[in-house]
Amino acid sequence: MKAVGLYRYLPIDHPEALLDLDVPAPVAAGRDLFIDVKAIAVNPVDYKMRAPKDQVETTPRILGWDVAGVVKATGPDATLFKPGDAVYYAGARMRQGGNSEQHLVDERIVGKKPATLGFAEAAALPLTTLTAWEGMFERIGISKSGEHAGRSILVIGGAGGVGSIAIQLAKQLARLTVIATASRPETTRWVRELGADRVVDHTRELAPQLGGEVDYVLCLSNIEPYVAQLPAVVAPQGRICAIVGTQKPLDLGPLMAKSVTFAWELMFTRPAYQTADMITQHRILDEAAALVEKGVLRTTMTENLGPITAANLKRAHARLEGGRVIGKLVLEGFAS
Q: Do 306 and 247 share a structural domain?
């Protein structure tokens, strides 16, 4: 089968950073689904895992953790899907990624593809939807049924992939007052289109722009530049969720006076540790698909870069590394 992968971890402008390959097709076992990959999306985790380091793979490493495709076969223990089902999912970081014609994934982290979306539009959603959903509704306990309606949330990094779905979930399901950060006219327009009530500039001090404290903070970029600002931003007994790992310890001591809750979110945790509630991700993706079909949520795809090739994936990685992508970049199909 065709795939895009790597043997060495190199800068994205190196000719061998990503390669077009021909590799053996995998075989489904256990609760695996064998997927014909139709479209993929690209996330920061892709370029972070590809980042230069002194390591050489003897078999190619395949990246990619956003897939929409069709079930071709199932493992002997799979019960949730059957051949022919259209699905979407983010996969598991410890397994080979989905930048390949066929892919294996545990059915417990797979959802039914929204029927109203094409494969490219659907591929934009899984990783970011799981991250935003788990971060807001599970890690910091926001009610997705509107019990906390009227409370406020600050979404730092509102125009990125996770922010683009988080704004919609916070507004449409939780019915919160949504304040998103953006610093350019085009990102400001995007977050307002998605439902942000207010926009503040993350390149400037946040508290003076907010004019008051917020109940929740969802930080979707490196939290280190904002840690010193958080005590003035979050309300007493407020809650903060972050999704980007840090390079140094965080000084959270100043948050104690306000009894602030701080939580991490990583959507790969459940598949990585095979948690007892791993099937929750299947249920989240099915629920999100139903919301898309009802018109409550919309795809966050902003650009289709064409077929799944090393050249197009290198373009996507370079764009994401530049830090100015709005929404999600998607690739669709394999060149013949």
A: no
Residues 171 and 89 in one domain: no
Q: Are residues 117 and 143 in the same domain?
A: no
DSSP-H helix ranges across the chain = 44-50, 119-123, 126-133, 161-168, 185-194, 206-210, 230-233, 269-273, 280-293, 310-321
Residue 24 CB neighbours (<10 A): 9
Tens-digit pLDDT profile for residues 133-147: 999 999 999 999 999
**Beta carbons of 162 and 193 less than 8 angstroms apart:** no
pLDDT in tens, 15-34: 999 999 999 999 999 999 99
**pLDDT confidence tier of residue 78, bands split at 50, 70 and 90:** very high
For residue 104, give the nearest of 59, 57, 69 by alpha carbon: 69
Cβ atoms within 10 A of the Cβ of 106, count? 23
